[in-house]
């Protein structure tokens, strides 16, 4: 059977203008991976590492600068919106912040009926309403919520509405881009459990994007670690957490997960590091305590440590680490 998602050598360069000066940012650089049907693949890395850009390219909300995307074996890289429409129905995305992703002027009924009309699934208003109620129940909401607007819900409920909207077209695959990062910790757990239940009930496949290791550990079968637009490590979840091989992965595991106050600092930091990078050598060099002469001269390739564990490092870690989720 085909992998449900295959990306090959994906690259994305953004061009931005600042007071007339054009600058280029390489957000994603040579990323390749596959996602098998039924798995939850995690994508982790600090803010600015290119996770969202990868997620958006898969569902063609962004076009790659180069490389290829295959969905269920079909190369969709160069399809126009019309030709991509059948895939858009099957491959959905849920964003971090339901406040900005849900139109504030539409009721839940309108928000959730819309995909049924747009994709020609159901035109009849009464039947649309029935389908919407069914999906609302799936996400733990009820008929009484039909005529409410997004702002009338709590953060967790709003994310339930966003998940319901993604489910309306009966998708096979969903990109979940930091789906719980904007929520309180207690609510986070409820939404994560809901996502796990929905996956089992509807045979879904997820690409789960997060900067939170605890969340990734709980949700994912396999994990890709991104740093400055590249995959620097990939392994089955348990193996990654017990024996991280890249110094950056270990760094993530040792950092205390308290992202919000530091988010802007982190972006600044990564951007500064980026500016300092030479064209040679390893991207992680300036933050690494294991650098060898080789690391200054040669950009490391992603190589196999074992059949399912890859690492981009000249001097990978070998000792097992002890990772514990606190709390
Ligand atoms: N639309 C855009 N225009 C210009 N630069 C962008 C755009 N989107 C993302 N970037 C840049 O690309 C890099 C990766 O961003 P992103 O994919 O959002 O990372 P992440 O999701 O890991 O935080 C960052 O440096 C970001 O500033
Ligand atoms: Mg992001």
What attributes does this structure have?
12 helices, binds magnesium ion, binds adenosine-5'-diphosphate, 327 residues, eight-stranded mixed β-sheet
Task: Characterise this structure.
The protein has 327 residues and is α/β, with parallel strands linked by helices. It has a domain at 227-327. 37% of the residues lie in helices and 24% in strands. It is built from twelve helices and twelve strands. It has helices at 51-58, 81-90, 98-101, 108-118, 125-138, 155-167, 185-201, 213-219, 237-242, 247-254, 259-276, 293-297; strands spanning 5-18, 21-35, 40-44, 66-71, 74-75, 91-94, 173-177, 205-210, 222-227, 230-236, 303-306, 309-311. The strands form two sheets. It has an eight-stranded mixed β-sheet, with helices on both faces. A four-stranded antiparallel β-sheet has the order 2-1-4-5. α4 (108-118) packs across α5 and α6 runs parallel beside α7. It is globular. It starts with a strand and ends in a 16-residue tail after the last strand. Residues 14, 16, 25, 27, 45, 47-53 line the site of adenosine-5'-diphosphate (ADP).
- What ranges have pLDDT less than 50 throughout 5 or more consecutive residues? 258-264
Helix/strand-derived class? alpha/beta
Instruction: Write down how many β-strands occur, each being a DSSP E stretch of 2 or more residues.
Output: 12
Mean pLDDT: 91
First-to-last CA distance: 40 Å
Number of helices: 12
Give the percentage of residues in beta strands. 15-25%
Give helix and strand order, one letter per element, not per position.
EEEHEEHEHHHHEHEHEEHHHHEE
Major sheet: size, sense and barrel closure? 8 strands, mixed
Order of adjacent strands in the largest pleated sheet: 6-7-8-3-9-10-12-11
Bound molecules: adenosine-5'-diphosphate, magnesium ion
Cα radius of gyration in angstroms? 21 Å
Helix fraction bin: 25-40%
Q: What sort of overall outline do the alpha carbons produce when their principal axes are compared?
A: globular
């Amino acid at each position: 059977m085909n992998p449900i998602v295959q990306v090959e050598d994906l690259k994305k360069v953004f061009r931005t203008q600042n007071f007339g000066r054009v600058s280029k940012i390489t957000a994603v650089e040579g990323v390749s991976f596959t996602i098998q049907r039924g798995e939850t693949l995690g994508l982790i890395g600090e803010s600015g590492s290119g996770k969202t850009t990868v997620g958006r390219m898969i569902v063609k909300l962004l076009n790659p600068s180069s490389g290829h995307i295959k969905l269920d074996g079909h190369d969709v890289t160069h399809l126009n919106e019309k030709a991509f429409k059948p895939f858009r129905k099957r491959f959905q995305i849920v964003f971090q912040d339901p406040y900005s992703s849900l139109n504030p002027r539409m009721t839940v009924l309108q928000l959730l009926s819309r995909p049924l009309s747009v994709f020609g699934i159901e035109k009849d208003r009464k039947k649309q309403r029935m389908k919407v109620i069914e999906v609302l129940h799936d996400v733990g909401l009820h008929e009484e919520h039909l005529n409410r607007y997004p702002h009338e819900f709590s953060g967790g409920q709003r994310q339930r509405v966003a998940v319901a909207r993604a489910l309306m077209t009966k998708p096979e695959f969903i990109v979940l881009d930091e789906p719980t990062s904007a929520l309180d910790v207690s609510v986070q757990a409820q939404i994560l459990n809901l996502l796990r239940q929905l996956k089992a009930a509807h045979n879904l496949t997820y690409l789960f994007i997060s900067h939170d290791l605890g969340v990734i550990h709980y949700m994912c079968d396999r994990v890709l670690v991104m740093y400055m637009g590249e995959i620097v490590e990939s392994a089955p979840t348990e193996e990654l957490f017990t024996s991280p091989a890249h110094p950056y992965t270990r760094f993530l595991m040792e950092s205390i997960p308290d992202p919000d106050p530091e988010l802007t600092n982190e972006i600044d930091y990564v951007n500064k590091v980026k500016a300092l990078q030479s064209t040679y050598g390893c991207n992680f060099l300036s933050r690494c305590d294991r650098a060898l002469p080789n690391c200054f001269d040669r950009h490391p390739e992603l190589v196999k440590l074992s059949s399912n564990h890859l690492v981009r490092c000249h001097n990978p870690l070998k000792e097992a680490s002890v990772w514990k989720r606190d709390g």
